[in-house]
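To fix ideas, we quote verbatim one protein's residues and fold tokens.
>
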Amino acid sequence: MRTSGREQPCVRLAALYLVLVLFSSVAAAIDKAGIDDKLSAVVNYERGMDTQPLIAVEQLIRDSQDQPEQRKYIERRLAELLAGATLEGKSFICKQLWFIGTAESVPAVAKLLTDEETADMACYAIGQNPSPEAGRALRDALGKAPSKLQMRIINLLGDRRDSLSVGALGRLVFGAESQVAEAAVAALGKISGSEAMEILVRARAEGDSNLRFAATDAYLRCAENLAAEGKTEQASVIYKELAGKDEAAIIRSAAIKGLADTGGQGAVTIVIAALQDRTRMVRSIARGCVRTMQGEDVTELFASELSGKSPAEQVLLIDALADRGDPAALSAITALSKSEDSKVRKTVLHAVGKLGDASYVDFLVQSAAGASNSEEKTAAMNSLSQLPGDGVDDAIVKAMQSSQASARSELIQVLYDRNAAGAVPALLAEAENPDSKVRRAAFKALSRLAGEKDMPSLINLLVRMQDDSGRRDAERAAVAVSRKISDEEGCADAVLAALRAEEGVSLKCSLLRVLGGIANPKALETIVSASKETEPAVCDSVVRALAKWPDAAAAQALLDIYLQTDNRVHRLLALRGFVRLLALPVQNRPVQKTLEMCRRAMSHADSIAEKKLVLSGLANVGDAEALKMVESFLQTEEIRAEAAIAAIKIAGAIARTNPGKAEVAMNKLLAGLQDENLRRQAEGVLRQIQGSQIDVHEP
């Protein structure tokens, strides 16, 4: 029969479909012979033999993940092979049945449960098997196994929460040896349920001390299981019973924690009582419960208990409520601020610092003002420093502005501690307060809080000051703020402008000291120019500013003052400053220039003390010419030791760059040196030179 052209594609599709179905059927067919070959290879396995057969079986099981019929066949064959396998073979098979076992393999595994050699591997294989047959096998084995094996089976029944084994376990609680009985009560705790709990209640009443404790722990486990199942009322009953004073501290602690977590009726009262418990563990758990306990109006419930408690209990409860972080407790807490007990009052203040906001600033300010002792006052001020929330800084400023002088300075310190940058305008005003303590506190706060834009205002304050009593505080603030200015070159501009417009000696000196603290190139140039003035106070300010200069740029100016001044104090200050700066790194000054400066200083030194100072500065010039200069003073008895110290230091510095001259100098020094300490140092330099020469010649 001929087919039409239209029918031919349909025929071809049908044929293709039949081929695919046939291929799938062939592919789905189980290769039982191949599987049997692989499985039978593990039957005679012994430790130390080739593990490839074991690996092949593991791979076979992994490959069967999406082939339920093949996996079912593998399980059946493993179960059949189990009895005849070696001990190592049995162990391997049980491990595979843990992974793939179902009800079908249970009978074979069950036979191993009562044999001490195989019980562990059988428990492993059957423990996670979800089938009812697995539970039945464990229950049957429980009555047949010796006590040593019973404990393993009991643990498994507990882990499986096998409710059908409760009766058998109950009989073991009261009829087996102690270890088995304790294992049985532990399993009953895992299983839970009314029947299990009845047995545990009886064991708590009738058992010996060890059994009672084990039963109590299991009873607690029942409560935890009930709570996890949402049966919080039943759980709370158990928790309340176990929170009683006759229970062990660890049990009471766990019960109180459980009761707090479930939020059962009366939990708040029990937790509060536990805060005063004789045992530290229980008290600690109770404090944690106050902090974390959930539920509607819990904070208010805890807070409502405050008024009727002893001072010691109030302190504990207030601390816990503060850590809870719920402002709802504040009303009840602050009601105790007039307590006769100082510890309670102090604890109230601490709590307000954690829970309060801007509306509690006045409360804390008034508490500080009316504090009966320094500890309470400190607590109030610390709480002001820590008080969270928006608007607190503004509220403190307002309170400060309406306070007496003593309180003002303390509140300014609070603003300083709070890093309240928004308070700068108010602090600038307080810097002109007639009270010196207030001014000092304001300038200290401005040092931290004022910024670049506030620098002109600070300098204006300094200029307007009528006396010198608070000028140093203003100077320190100006220097501190100048260091926050991003433009290093221009950070002294406000000071320079004020200095150019000032004729008064006292204010000139003040501004020069500020420039010394700023210490940028413009400041140095201005101070050097001021050194030419004849006014003694100005000259003194110049010398002292230069002597404290932070970098080597002022060295020449100090040397010039040393060479030119007739003032012995200024002469010594300048020399000390010059010597100190010689030890600092320098830019754009040749070594020869430094050496020339040292020569001029030494030639001008008119005392042994001054010569020793110059030598100490010269010691920091790591150059062979400096070493030559120092050697010329080794023959002068009064400064020989200082010259030797300088020579050793310079030689050490040039040991690599100019080892020849350093070695000659050290050998020459050692020839006439008596001091043992200096000899050791010189010999150390020679060893350093020899070591560097070896390094150079090594390939």
User: Anything to note?
Assistant: Residues 64 and 70 are 6 Å apart (CA to CA). The chain has a mean pLDDT of 90. The chain has 41 helices and no strands.
